[in-house]
Every structure is written in structure tokens, then in C-alpha cells.
Amino acid sequence: MRGELRVTLVADGSCWGCVSFFREAPHDFTADERDFMHGMSAVLGRAFRRSGIHARPTAPGAELWPGVLVLGNDREIVSVTPPAVDWLQEFGYYGAPGRDPLPFEVVSLVERVRATAGDATARVLGASGRWIQLHASPAGSGQEVAVVLQAAPSVSIEPLISAAYGLTTRERELIELVLQGCGTREIAERLIVSPHTVQSHLKSIFGKVGVRSRRELVGRVFAP
Hints:
This protein has 3 domains: 3-54, no CATH class; 67-152, PAS domain (Beta-Lactamase, 2-Layer Sandwich), CATH 3.30.450.20; 155-221, Winged helix-like DNA-binding domain superfamily/Winged helix DNA-binding domain (Arc Repressor Mutant, subunit A). It has helices at residues 31-39, 41-51, 82-88, 104-116, 154-164, 169-179, 184-191, 195-209, 214-221, and strands at residues 3-11, 14-23, 67-71, 77-80, 120-125, 131-138, 145-151. The longest helix has 15 residues, at 195-209. The protein is of the alpha+beta class. Helix 7 packs across helix 8. The chain starts with a strand and ends with a helix. It is 42% helix and 22% strand. The chain is built from 9 helices and 7 strands, in the order E-E-H-H-E-E-H-H-E-E-E-H-H-H-H-H. Pfam families: GerE. This is HTH luxR-type domain-containing protein. It comes from Kribbella koreensis. Keywords: DNA-binding, Transcription, Transcription regulation. Residues 160-224 form the HTH luxR-type domain.
């Protein structure tokens, strides 16, 4: 039996990833090694969170067409569209669908659908640095599952990017209104605060993101 060490990467109370280390038997990880890695969890968590800042959503229609995979009961591919094959390369997959195992991200989503008998979705950072949206749903009357792979729009990535910059819940609410093109007075009315408070929140957001204007904010954080 091999030794295993699992470390949850947490930053500011949120999980940003999980890392597993394995060591061949009969050796195992020492207590000092486990303590060291668990002590590094916050550092690695902040690093993983920060990596989301460098990724960008993709504008609708600016990239590949959505791709569709249909998987059978034994994870065999029932059908696949050409764009889906291209999207799979974003996961570092260059095998042949139907012959080589599919990426973990796709398989795990399919298994979630089978376990819950409902729809499932996930956002995954691709090899090119763009975000990919995956949707999976039961298909047909059997155990088949259809998976749609497409470019993730800005609205689905905004919460992740905002969290990566360490923005508060109120600051995220304000950013959503900025993305909608709302002015200071309209934002104040919607959030039931004063225009002065809106400007104070914007100043805090600008400082965290490293910009000086709303236009820079949208360009820095959400532009593809």
C-alpha cells in the first residue's frame, strides 16, 4: 500500500484546489513532511487564487463553436462533433476519442450527472489560458450523458476573477452593476447606499485590481 498525502488549498476561507502526493510502499510521508505541506496550504491556495487573474473569459462567438460529446454507460463515446475534439485539446488531450481515456474534467462531470440524475456544469481553465464552460445532462432513456463544451462568457467567470482579486461581496455586487453600464447614481439607488459610498467602494476596487478608472477595470479584469 502506498503512502498518500492530501492537501486542501485554502485562501481566505475558500477552497481553491486540492493536491495529492503519493509515495510508493513501504515508504510513507513523515509527520514533519505532512506538517510542512499543511503549513504551505495557505501559500499555495493564494497562488492558485492569483492564477485566475491571468486567465480571461472568452467573448461569445469569438472562438470555437460549441462542441458536443455523448457518452454511453461505460464512458464510451456514442457521438462527437468536430469542435468537441478541438475543445478537448484545451485539457491537454490529444488522444483519439473512443480509444483513449477522456480528460478527468469531462469524466468527473459525467459521473456527477449519473449520480444525481440531473444537470451539472463546471468552469475549467484551459491550456491556452481561456476559461471553458462545460454543461452535462442526461440524454435519452438510458445512461447516456451529453456534454457541451464552449467558451465561458464573462458573466460566468466574474465571480472567480473577483474572488481572485480578494474583492468583498459588496464590491462584487458593485462590479456586476458596472458591467451592466450603470452610473454612480443608479448603482447607489440599486444598492440603497449613497453616491459617496459607491465612490468609496470603487476606490477600494481600483486599488485591489490596480486600475484608475471603470474602463480600465472592465478591460483589466473582464476583457477577453
